[in-house]
Amino acid sequence: MKPFTYERAGSPAEAAAAAARRPEAKFIAGGTNLLDLMKLQIETPAHLIDVNGLKLDTIEPTQEGGLRIGALVRNTDLAADERVRRDYGVLSRALLAGASGQLRNRATTAGNLLQRTRCPYFYDTNMACNKRRPGSGCSAIGGINRQHAVVGASEACIATHPSDMAVAMRVLDASIETVKPQGATRTISIAELHRLPGDTPNVETVLEAGELITAVTLPRPVGGSQQYRKVRDRASYAFALVSVAAIVQPDGSGRVALGGVAHKPWRLDAADAEMPRGAKAVAGKLFADAKPTEHNAFKLPLAERALASVLADARG
Amino acid sequence: MAKLHVSTTINGEPQEFLCDAEQSMLDVLRGPLGLTGAKEGCGTGDCGACTITLNGRIVCSCLMLAAEAEGQEIGTIEGMAGEELHPLQQKFLESAALQCGICTPGVLMAAKALLEKNPDPTEHEVRFWLAGNLCRCTGYDKIIRAVMDTAADMRAAR
Ligand SMILES: Cc1cc2nc3c(=O)[nH]c(=O)nc-3n(C[C@H](O)[C@H](O)[C@H](O)COP(=O)(O)OP(=O)(O)OC[C@H]3O[C@@H](n4cnc5c(N)ncnc54)[C@H](O)[C@@H]3O)c2cc1C
Ligand code: SF4
Fold first, then answer.
1. Measured in angstroms, how far is the CA atom of residue A294 from the centroid of ligand 2?
2. What is the predicted pLDDT for the residue at A49?
3. Which member of A153, A163, A234, B140 has the lowest number of beta carbons within 10 Å of its beta carbon?
4. Which residues form a coiled coil (chain B) (predicted)?
């Protein structure tokens, strides 16, 4: 690791002030993604602000009948929360489908949303990668790109977002509360948080430098059958090739978001509207603009079949 | 750069140490503190050989900064046996649930945490819980069996 300085913040205001003082700083929460990337010198922050002491680790009901999840709530605790299991089952299932017990005990709600891609070329500092080194090229295009995006990608980058949790958050219409270094707060919908790669795949979210996530809120529960299906190369402890988060209502209407297919959780209104007509119709809309690569075209039928199986389960 | 001073508790005993910001908990345990039970398998959170407990919950010490131990309670494999071996350790020996032994400290830490939470796990639950501990020798069956047998013994002994 490149040497860095380290400080602990005791409150969101302190963390924001620290970020204003040190624009080159990064926040560290569970560290399970950031430290991994720092060891490989893919991330080289000169200063770390430890946000583990921020006391943002509770899950509270909101006035609107939803839940406000502190940014530092660990993935284990979020998955086990009784209200989450009862009212937002898709979130609990998605969390438990990710990583391992050791990692979920450390990983936080905010850190999980902001984890970076698992593109192997991004991880290999000898290879060209526009996300890691803007302008250097994309080794995945024309390389081994079996894991990569089939939709929403660009000429500059075809990476996917690796989070399971974020896919469930997308189908649940979560919103992200933040505080900027100068103290202003704002709320960002999960639909807008992550960017498509475009010409600047190094810019992954709409967050500004030093903008701290304080909480993620869920709207009132929408009921329905809530499913998460993750398809991967082995039965446990691997990232998704494709994943399906779906909420299906008794009348067949519902919503669906896909993981493993794009630079962000992939959900389209036009696809949700097709839910009563079944998996083929929904997948047709989700993949209307798909441009699969040489190695990953299998993701299209795989996602459709995973969705068909989820819909069959939902119907019971 | 100035060293960071950290006050923590390790296996129930107060412990202070100095470290660099970039040292992991695993670096400090295995280096200055001489607690070499936890192993560095991958250094990337995949293998679980570095598993310790942080405030009673298993974590990968390779992905935790030593500075983050300030004010927290750390548990390592060295704290597992009392006068006698922990029943899991004894059972692992008896059932040859290890070969090279590199993964064993991490597996034992994870299995102990499982049995404290769930004294009567199904095989599926044991496999799910130990998914973060890779073993390249045993093929897992003896490990899973040893954990289930220990759980049964511990239930019978209560
Ligand atoms: C071996 C392995 C397997 C894994 N498998 C899976 C899997 O199957 N599915 C899956 O979804 N994930 C998986 N993960 C990824 C894991 O879920 C993430 O590493 C974790 O969720 C990141 O959370 P963290 O709190 O540790 O983040 P950190 O590593 O602390 O931070 C990640 C990023 O978020 C930023 N950040 C953190 N908190 C805040 C905040 N409050 N405000 C603003 N910025 C913040 C940090 O600056 C950093 O850029 C795996 C990880 C490993 C190591
Ligand atoms: S797909 Fe994106 S992350 Fe992967 S090599 Fe190309 S630019 Fe880098």
1. 15
2. 98
3. A234
4. none
ipTM value, please give it: 0.96
Out of B80, B110, B132, pick the residue that ends a domain. B80
Between the alpha carbon of residue A132 and those of residues A17, A44, B85, B144, the distances in Å are: 28, 11, 48, 41
- The answer on B107 and B72 residing in a single domain is no
Residues B96 and B55 in one domain: no
Q: In 3D, which of A55, A10, A27 has the Cα closest to residue A113?
A: A27
- Residue B63 and residue B122 in one domain: no
The tally of domains found in chain B comes to 2
Centre of ligand 1 to C-alpha A196, Å, is 19
Rounded Cα distance, B68 and B24, in Å: 9
| pLDDT, position A315 | 83
Does B63 share its domain with B113? no
Closest to A185 (Cα-Cα) out of A174, A173, A176: A176
Domain boundary, last residue among B80, B113, B148: B80
- Running along chain A, 316 residues long, what does each successive block of 10 average in pLDDT? 96 95 96 98 97 97 98 98 98 97 98 98 97 98 97 98 98 98 96 98 97 98 97 88 97 97 98 97 98 96 98 88
Residue minimizing CA distance to atom 6 of ligand 2: A138
Q: What angle do CA B151, B156, B158 make, to 5 degrees?
A: 100
Residue A104: C-alpha distances to residues A95, A100, A222 (Å): 8, 6, 26
The answer to whether residue B1 scores a pLDDT higher than 90 is no
pTM greater than the 0.95 cutoff: yes
Give chain B positions within 8 Å (CB) of A50: 65, 67-68
Local confidence band at B2 (pLDDT 50, 70, 90 cut-offs): confident
Residues B76 and B93 in one domain: no
Residue A90 token pair = 């898709």
pLDDT at A280: 98
B45 to A48: CB separation less than 8 angstroms, yes or no: no
Rg (CA), chain A: 19
Nearest to A36 among B20, B44, B129 (CB): B44
Query: Domain range holding B21?
Result: 4-80
